[in-house]
Amino acid sequence: MDGTRITRAALRMATPLAALALLGATGASWAQDAQFAADSSATRVVPEAAQPAFQPSEAAHFENAFVRFAEPVEPSLPDHAVDITTIEPAEPTATPIGPGIASYYGRKFHGRPTASGERFDMNALTAAHKTLPFGSRVRVINPRTGASVVVRINDRGPFVRGRDIDVSRAAAEQIGIVRSGHGRVELELLDS
């Protein structure tokens, strides 16, 4: 190679960057249309005059990509679709357990572990029962006032004869048995 003429074979053997450097150094007239193969792929050399005068920045590309999403579009629903946001949640079915005596426990046991492993919180709506599974939800109703509360079973008890359920202080306040310490109640087991 004499520096003024570069053969196509030399361009094919050179790497793409080296081939561009060789073409730029020689100023060969045919360089604008030259094609060469490197790593089994052909690359076309494009003269600067053929390149667009303005190249938008990446930020401009990014901003333009989301222009069509600027106006929110309400999705269309098929005719058979049901809007679940307007459906009222079904009232859980209640199975009466029967009448009983409820008492409550509070500050003395606050923070101590329960039989389920949870810490007892006197401000939560929880209760202790001798046989119901942990996690069961029970509606406790004061038949004298009609006040009721739904509690979650997380402990075992009560261990006092004649008592059927021990509720937390917060639950006892809702059904109005804090003053007396205990009271006659109706119990219902909720299905969910």
Automatic annotation (TrEMBL):
Keyword Cell wall biogenesis/degradation: yes
Pfam families per the UniProt record, alphabetical: DPBB_1 (PF03330)
Gene Ontology molecular function: any one: lytic endotransglycosylase activity
InterPro entries xrefs: RlpA, RlpA-like_DPBB, RlpA-like_sf, RplA
Record EC number: 4.2.2.-
Entry-linked Gene3D superfamilies: RlpA-like domain
One GO process term, biological-process aspect: cell wall organization
Top-level class of the enzyme under EC nomenclature: lyase
PANTHER family for this protein: ENDOLYTIC PEPTIDOGLYCAN TRANSGLYCOSYLASE RLPA, ENDOLYTIC PEPTIDOGLYCAN TRANSGLYCOSYLASE RLPA-RELATED
Protein's name in the database: Endolytic peptidoglycan transglycosylase RlpA
Primary gene name: rlpA
